[in-house]
Amino acid sequence: LVPPRGAAHNEAHSASFSDPQADAVASARVDPMLRDALTNGGQERIAVLKVELEIARFVKDRTAHTYEFDGTSFHRLIAHKVAAHYGLTSCSVQGADGADKAFLEKPPTGIL
User: Alpha carbon 42 to chain centroid distance?
Assistant: First the structure.
């Protein structure tokens, strides 16, 4: 996961393979469920990486302020956890099609 921006960003971003203490600081900032999924590999790792990529694109899109994330309940859980990591607000909603979605919202301008 990409470290969040802000003061903690520099600490988390300074992690390296040669600095176990910096690695521990960076690792502590990642939700334990996400860390386990990334560590265990397989389909869970792929799911986390795909969801994170989709949310990262939303965060970078300066024209979008909200985003409805579709997917399985596991993918929506990942979306909520990744959203929290990025400093986004998230909640569960039912879409117009009746399907459950994770609704993500950026904070006021200038925070991300």
Answer: 19
pTM, full prediction: 0.73
d(C-alpha 34, C-alpha 92), whole Å: 19
Q: What DSSP string describes 21-85?
A: HHHHHHHHTS-HHHHHHHHH-HHHHHHHHHHHHHHHHHHH-TT--EEEEPS-HHHHHHHHHHHHH
* Residue range 67-87, pLDDT digits in tens: 999 999 999 999 999 999 999
Distance, in Å, from the CA atom of 25 to the CA atom of 104, rounded to the nearest integer, reads: 26
Those residues whose C-beta lies under 8 Å from the C-beta of residue 44, and which sit 6 or more positions away, are: 36, 37, 38
Least confident of 25-29, 52-56, 60-64, 88-92: 25-29
Of the candidates 40, 15, 93, which has an alpha carbon nearest to the alpha carbon of residue 104?
A: 93
